[in-house]
Amino acid sequence: MSLSPIAFHGRAAVSPVSTPSADDASVWNTAAVEALYGLPFLDLLYRAQTVHRQRHAPNEVQLSSLLSIKTGGCPEDCGYCSQSSSHKEAGVPAGKLMSSAAVLEAARAAKAQGATRFCMGAAWRNPKERNMDELTTMVRDVRALGLETCMTLGMLEAAQARSLKEAGLDFYNHNLDTAPDFYGQVISTRTYQDRLDTLRKVQEAGLNVCCGGIIGMGETRRQRAGLIAQLASLSPQPESVPINHLVPIKGTPLEGAPPLDEFEFVRTVAVARITLPGAVIRLSAGRESMSDATQALCFAAGANSIFLGSKLLTTPNAPVSADLDLLTRLGLQPAPAQA
Q1: CA separation, residue 278 to residues 14, 47, 225, 238 (Å)
Q2: Is 298 annotated to bind ligand?
Q3: What is the 3-state secondary structure (H, E, C) of 66-118?
Q4: Where [4Fe-4S] cluster is bound, by residue (predicted)?
Q5: Potential cystine with 284: which of 88, 116, 160, 242 (Cβ 3.0-4.6 Å)?
Q6: For the segment 32-88, what is each residue's pLDDT rounded down to a tens digit?
Q7: What does the pLDDT read at residue 82?
Q8: Do residues 201 and 157 lie in contact, with contact meaning Cβ atoms separated by under 8 Å?
Q9: Can you give the residue ranges of every domain in the chain?
């Protein structure tokens, strides 16, 4: 299997009323996705909610927890990230890999709060072989609690992906971040093809793919459409798609990124739901600054997962009590565990 960036074409004469069906992933090019963005807001939400109800329990939200198992000191220069060794003014020191015992304790606490998936992230370009025994132990221990497991460790070799699969890892997260034609303005130390190559290795190992991006980094709507088109073109499509709203962090190159209109973010969630009908759409970073009304619109647009906990790696997240209260007020139920 070979993954490569899809071709970018001039805007085709695609009418909003003649966009492809949700199941026709092969024709979700940038122009077709951009046409979805151009639909009247309520028409777009109606279409997204229709697709959502065809594929997913309409009033269930999957609850996840995310733990930074190795923080700071990353050699990558991702412009949004405080953990890069290039962004020392962000004030995140390099730490060591947590012990599997400490990770297991955090997983128990997450489960007690209601999480059914436990995600573990390490600030690495790629894991070293000396790390693999500890990482696979973490997977086995967390999975033994009855939690789904996910890891994001940077680029993987094929043998590492197989080792994680054999240990019982359910999902591997590796985001595309943005469209190919905007990517170079955000990251220089890893190519777009590097990311696609890691996704290929993850898929070939039999792992479920968690892959999404970040909205609000200064990209255009067409570039947002380009990201969604890339995700929709993956074969198979990702089972899990996190949609992150940029959290501008002091000391990073994107600390002064212009604010994104909240309706544009909701539109992105809706477009992702339509073009990736079978995926769990994860309302991820940036919720802490969103109003309850905006989050409710995201659920109406097809988002059906959130992260619980006061922190997502190094950025703030909504309090657990506030999240559970919001779900109750909206009549939404936590999705049952699948592990």
Answers
A1: 24, 15, 19, 9
A2: no
A3: EEEEECCCECCCCCCCCCECCCHHHCCCCCCCCCHHHHHHHHHHHHHHCCCEE
A4: 74, 78, 81
A5: 242
A6: 999 999 999 999 999 999 999 999 999 999 999 999 999 877 888 888 888 776 666
A7: 80
A8: yes
A9: 56-330
Tokens of 327: 């779900």
Measuring CA to CA, which residue among 310, 291, 181, 210 is closest to residue 245? 291
Indicate the pTM of the whole model: 0.88
Angle (CA) 257-258-259 rounded to 5° is: 115
Can you read off the two tokens belonging to residue 83?
A: 């953990």
Give 132-143 pLDDT, tens digit per residue. Answer: 999 999 999 999
Helix ranges (H only) for 234-277 are 262-275
Q: Over pLDDT 90: what percentage of the chain?
A: 70
Which amino acid would we find at residue 46? Y
* CATH class of residue range 56-330: alpha beta
Active site amino acids: 74, 78, 81, 119, 150, 210, 282
- Angle between helix axes 30-37 and 262-275 (nearest 10 degrees) is 130
pLDDT at residue 81, as a whole number: 85
Q: For the packed helices 221-233 and 30-37, what is the interaxial angle rounded to 10 degrees?
A: 120
Q: Is 119 annotated as a binding residue?
A: yes
What is the residue type of 266? V
C-alpha to C-alpha distance for 230 and 219, rounded to whole angstroms? 15
Among 275, 269, 326, which residue's Cα sits nearest to residue 302? 269
